[in-house]
Amino acid sequence: MIEGWPAALEATALATSLRNSVWSYPLVNAAHILGVALLVGSIVPLDLRLLGVWRSLPLAPLWVVLTRSAGVGLVVAIVFGALLFITRASEYTNSSLFVAKMVAVGLGTLNALLLRRLTPLTETPTADTKLRPRLRVAAGISLGLWLAALTLGRLIGYF
């Protein structure tokens, strides 16, 4: 049963429609790329700031704007990525690159959620916060995981 679920996804009317459409699949792919761009484009500058780059810029406003835009990007990337997945689920589930990408995305998301949970909303990080070492470690992990997910995602199309 567990082996048949990718084929069952590929056989759905939605997956068939996406695969056979001249416009739908490319538009879904573009939306997925937009979500990834918003996610990574928000995460990288925030992580770099947490690691000490651009110290003259106040962290609090960046934290508020970039965590929200990264969250929106993640949701968009997941929704449209799931639509891409169902069109070739059997191929993707057998791809070590895809599995590695999903692990990186899962760990990156978990890292962000843990950081958010450990940093109360009333305690938005500032340059002087006692959470600074924890923030720096989380930022380094985040940067590595999201760049790995981005790289693995691009490699999937070539291998």
- Percent of residues in helices comes to over 70%
Derived from helix and strand composition plus strand pairing, the structural class reads: mainly alpha
> Residue-averaged pLDDT, rounded?
89
Distance between the termini: 27 Å
Identify the overall geometry. elongated
Number of helices: 7
Largest beta-sheet details: none
Q: What percentage of the residues does DSSP assign to strands (E)?
A: under 5%
Count of DSSP E strands?
Answer: 0
Helix-strand sequence:
HHHHHHH
Oligomer: single chain
Structural summary, described in words:
By secondary structure, the protein is an all-alpha fold. It is built from 7 helices and no strands. Helix 3 runs antiparallel to helix 4 and helix 3 packs antiparallel against helix 7. The two termini are about 25 Å apart. The model has no long low-confidence stretch (mean pLDDT about 90).
What topology emerges from the helices and strands here?
Elements: H1 5-10, H2 13-20, H3 24-50, H4 59-87, H5 89-93, H6 96-118, H7 132-156
Give a quick summary of the entry.
The chain is mostly helical and 159 residues long. The protein contains 7 helices and no strands. 77% of the residues lie in helices and 0% in strands.
Task: Tag the structure with descriptive keywords.
single chain; 159 residues; mainly alpha; 0% strand
